[in-house]
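Quick log. Single chain, no ligands specified.
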Amino acid sequence: MKKSKNIGILLAVLAAALYALNSPLSKLLLDYLPPTLMAGFLYLGAGMGMGIIALIRRAAKKEQNELKLTRNELPYTVAMVVLDIAAPIFLLMGLNATSAANASLLNNFEIVATALIALMIFKERISPRLWGGILFVVLSCALLSFEDISSLQFSYGSLFVLLACVCWGFENNCTRKLSSKDPMQIVVIKGLGSGLGSLIIGLVLGEKISAVWSVFAVLGVGFVAYGLSIFFYVYAQRSLGAARTSAYYAIAPFIGALLSLIIFAEIPKYTFIIALVLMAIGAYLSASDEPLLKKRKRK
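-> predicted structure:
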């Protein structure tokens, strides 16, 4: 039992670390691929990679007892794919106009969006502890969203990141409705469906690839930061449960922010440090709230 728990903790932290690579590496690759096409290749990388793993498992005849998606889940499946087309496009547009460290921390606004959407649409209860977490996260996001506090100059890059979080908040609530189904099937459908949708939009907008090698790099980032991260997250849940896994996974934005500061050799402003502390308090309160975490599921 103890060994299983330790393996679960390792998988949850690994899932968080892999997802944390997304913001800094995507920021670097935006010099070679425009946002919409990049979003498509990120999700295609996840879908193709997990599809290959699924084929290998089937060839090895490893028995699976997972429930498959049916027509009853079609509306939520379609909504999940559409929202996963919009969210990464907004995130990458935001990364174009704000620092990777800011974007990494702002990703925690997804907690707020998920909870408020669950309250307003699905009539779920929000505990006092979670309300406290929401307050700290919102305060932190407000600080991160201003380029110059003294003149209250708003960063439109931060606005796009927050829009991405809202989309993922809706997507989390849709994915809840699919949580009893085969996670591998969900990731493959999400990756291939959202990836192809974003690629089509990018091509219609006239976006062009400036370096062919960057396509393979982005596919790799998508496979690692989206595909493998989800894969390890799901298996961590089975050892630790949803609440504890989400608590460990909550470190992802902080790892991403630290990596971004190192990769881009940035010296954070005092407002970033204050926002970091506020975000850490908010993430802790939210990640340790049982009612939300028993239902919350990452992309």
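Residues 11 and 261 are 25 Å apart (CA to CA).
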